[in-house]
Amino acid sequence: MTRHHPPRRVLGSVAAVAAGAILLAACGTSSPAASGAPAADAGKPQTEAQLKSAAEQEGQVNWYTTFAADDITDMVAAFNKVYPKIKVNALRLSADQLPTKVITEQRGREFNADVVSGDSPQLDELINEGAMQPYCAPDEQALPSGQTLPKGYCGNVYVLTTIIAYNPKAVQRLGLQPPTSYQDLTKPQWRGQFSFDPGSVNFYESLIQQMGHARALQLVQALGRNQPKLVSSHTLALTQVEAGEPAATATAYGYKSASEIRKKGGSLMFVNTNPLPTSFTLIDIVKNAPHLSAAKLFTDWMVSQEGQQAIVDTTNHTSLRTDVKNDPTVWDPTKWPPAYGAGDITSTQYNQYVNELKQAVGSD
Predict the structure, then answer these.
(1) How does pLDDT run across 256-283, given as a tens digit for each residue?
(2) Where would I find the beta strands (DSSP E) of the chain?
């Protein structure tokens, strides 16, 4: 499919960014570009040795990311095993905070971020706003057939799958049958017994790509009529299900559910539907990055076989690389064909989908 990129609205608020960010280290200073000096060209060819040498001279890279806070430290440590002379300053933001943070800084002539990783719609927002610069790593894994990213922007750091998670003991106590599809959660016996995150636009967009807009809307409306408990995060949804109230959630992430099962055992199970709602999480370099060589080196490593395996081993996220070993309970396209979200919806469509989803599940 071809991706078009009309401007989108800036999501979130500056106050939310300030309140929600977890700062692991001080994040750089303004780049030479902020004072009028020309920025380096992210596409300029360099050998691996030249890039490493230049990155080590810069000495640091500023990374704005939606990686979970408890995963960031381990990811930085994995990178520093290979490149110990480059300090990674990581700022953890929620997906909807990323565009506001970067765009607000740039409008104030501050160029602090080097690299951003986050959900496809938010990275696309930044690209459309002219806040990013094209870059393709030399060892980038090709996307699945039919999927494309904006021209010149190639970094896919992992994919997210949305699944149904449930507490088997709670299901048994309530006399319910374990759900095997989203349609099951629309049945009368599941009324009020599951949760739903009304911000799961990536899930809804995957349904639209899978079954068409009208049928996807009908499905989420049917889920909404069954009075789900509303949650504001995927992690909170799993915590509640593990505690047995409610018995299930319709909008959990596969990687997190599998990790929780390994930690806590029988209080959680999950279902990969067929097709499996799947969305891209991207990594790209920011315009006027103050540490451009380090940004390129960090991006190269994150999408390489070594970096991708480190991501899978550390976070249990899913890599699209065929030379990386993923969690087979989370990702096996031969069993659960992915239904990819397009990631190319316009501002009008995005706002429409947000409103439809909230209205469908009664969060407005």
Answers:
(1) 999 999 988 789 999 999 999 999 999 9
(2) 22-23, 60-65, 87-92, 115-119, 132-133, 156-166, 194-196, 229-230, 248-253, 269-271, 276-286, 338-340
